[in-house]
Amino acid sequence: MEKAAGHQISDPRLAGDGTMICLSALSVYARDGLNGVGVDVTTHPDRSARMKVSFPSLAIPVGLYNVLALVTVVSPSLFGSAFDATTHTLFNLPMLSAGTSLAITFGHLILLIGLIALFFELVSSTRASNQALFGDALTLILFVVCLIEFLLLPPFATATFLLLTVMVLMDSMAGFIVSAVSARKDISLGA
Predict the structure, then answer these.
(1) Do the beta carbons of residue 24 and residue 53 sit within 8 Å?
(2) Do 42 and 98 form a contact (C-beta atoms < 8 A)?
(3) How sure is the predictor about 147, in pLDDT bands with cuts at 50, 70 and 90?
(4) 7-21 burial, b for 16+ CB within 10 Å, e for fewer?
(5) Closest alpha carbon to 39 in 3, 86, 67
(6) Is it the case that residue 172 has pLDDT exceeding 70?
(7) How many angstroms separate the CA atoms of 52 and 17, rounded?
(8) Model confidence at 187, in pLDDT bands (50, 70, 90)?
(9) Is the pTM of this model over 0.70?
């Protein structure tokens, strides 16, 4: 596992938090631990050690819908209204039953992307950290923006955008609930 002086490696056995460590030829020595082999390492501050901005992944389907609404406002001859754009059939999937097919629309694709993003957001909301709180705040801001768009702008008054807004609300609530539950556990363990 030795590397030349100055090379950086990432080994989860040596740095549990995934930080980059710098091994020099002088600092590598054998000692007990790590299955009989250990190294003296100097932590190297890098970009991954800084707080990363937690971008809400639900902003992707919301952004796609915003682009779709902008296209319908700028060139209404293309789709007509935002409702017509979300109900425009892209392709048909043949089903196993005779003579039936599933019509996939822009709205269906945006909602599918939203559901996948919601899954990843809910999985990532299980960690409790300052970064998670910042991400929850960004998701709450995204919800407020979605709610304002839904209530005040005609291209956003569709069932597709309502469902996207509800997804963002659920993500925001889940993040804050997980943070509150984990904080309560930390308090009860500390007492």
Answers:
(1) no
(2) no
(3) very high
(4) eeeeeeebeeeeebb
(5) 3
(6) yes
(7) 14
(8) low
(9) no
Residue corresponding to tokens 């952004």? 63
Distance of CA 144 to the CA centre of its chain: 18
User: Are the beta carbons of 55 and 27 closer than 8 angstroms?
Assistant: no
- What is the per-residue pLDDT for 82? 81
Directed axis angle between helix 130-152 and helix 159-190, to 10°? 150
Q: How many CA atoms lie within 13 A of 172 on its CB side?
A: 18
Nearest-angstrom CA–CA distance, 56 and 138: 7
- Examine the pLDDT at 151 and tell me if it is beyond 60: yes
Q: Nearest CA to 9 among 24, 29, 26, 30?
A: 24
Rg (C-alpha) for the chain, rounded Å, is: 24
Can you give the chain as a three-state secondary structure string? Answer: CCCCCCCEECCCCCCCCCCCEECCCCCCCCCCCCCCCCCCCEECCCHHHCCCCCCCCCHHHHHHHHHHHHHHHHCHHHHCCHHHHHCCEEEEEECCCCCCEEEEEHHHHHHHHHHHHHHHHHHHCCCCCHHHHHHHHHHHHHHHHHHHHHHHCHHHCCHHHHHHHHHHHHHHHHHHHHHHHHHHHHHHHHC
